[in-house]
Specification:
With 201 residues, this protein is mainly alpha-helical. It has 10 helices and no strands. Helix 4 packs across helix 5 and helix 8 crosses helix 10. The model has no long low-confidence stretch (mean pLDDT 84). One of its GO terms (molecular function) is monooxygenase activity. InterPro entries: Cyt_P450_sf.
Length: 201
């Protein structure tokens, strides 16, 4: 984005609303289908409790408010946050046990030098993914981490709305991530199992 584009955005502060940015991310970055994006675009009631609609949106039409409520209840409410935090700490400690150790014969040290970014992309990613959706997605797709980080690297490029022709790697990474997610959801739905972790269902 050039300076003129940035200035244009800041001249219209309404375009910086939570809903505007979330809709843009959903469309451009996450590949939300046009019909679903259109439904979200019709909801001008806002995410908060107070209905700010100027077009008469009420009830189930308040999609932003419903999504915000799910987010609050399932991710940020104290019981959910406590559960997720404890689960992440446990899973991260389990991931740390799989870190490679030094095989140097010149020292009794078990230290291994690893780049911080590589460390986070591997071990923190696995721990946070397992915390949120369980381990099966990692078992279902062995290269999901690589696919995700390629997608993550293209986030801003996709956000700018560049066409596929000039952003092939970004679009391809997004498509692979979406397909991997769809495959995992289909597999998970086809073979439901009873999980031991009933706190996070």
């Amino acid at each position: 984005m050039g300076a003129s584009n940035i200035q244009a955005i800041f001249r219209q502060p309404s375009s910086l609303s939570f809903e505007f940015m979330q809709l843009r991310i959903a469309e451009k970055v996450k590949g939300l289908p046009a019909r679903d994006a259109a439904l979200l675009g019709l909801d001008d009631s806002g995410a908060g409790t107070l209905n700010q609609s100027k077009t008469g949106v009420t009830g189930n039409g308040r999609i932003w408010h419903i999504l915000h409520g799910i987010y609050i209840k399932k991710l940020t409410e104290k019981s959910a946050a406590d559960c997720l935090t404890a689960k992440f700490v446990y899973e991260f400690s389990e991931q740390l046990k799989t870190c490679p150790q030094s095989n140097s014969k010149q020292s009794n040290s078990k230290e291994t030098v690893m780049g911080l970014y590589d460390f986070l992309q591997t071990y923190q990613f696995a721990a946070s993914t397992i915390t949120l959706v369980g381990p099966k997605i990692l078992q279902h797709s062995s290269d999901i981490a690589k696919t995700f980080w390629e997608y993550d690297a293209a986030f801003m490029t996709l956000m700018q709305g560049l066409p596929r022709l000039v952003c092939r790697k970004g679009w391809a990474a997004r498509d692979r991530t979406l397909e991997a997610t769809k495959e995992w959801l289909a597999a998970a739905s086809a073979a439901p199992t009873v999980e031991k972790d009933v706190d996070w269902d």
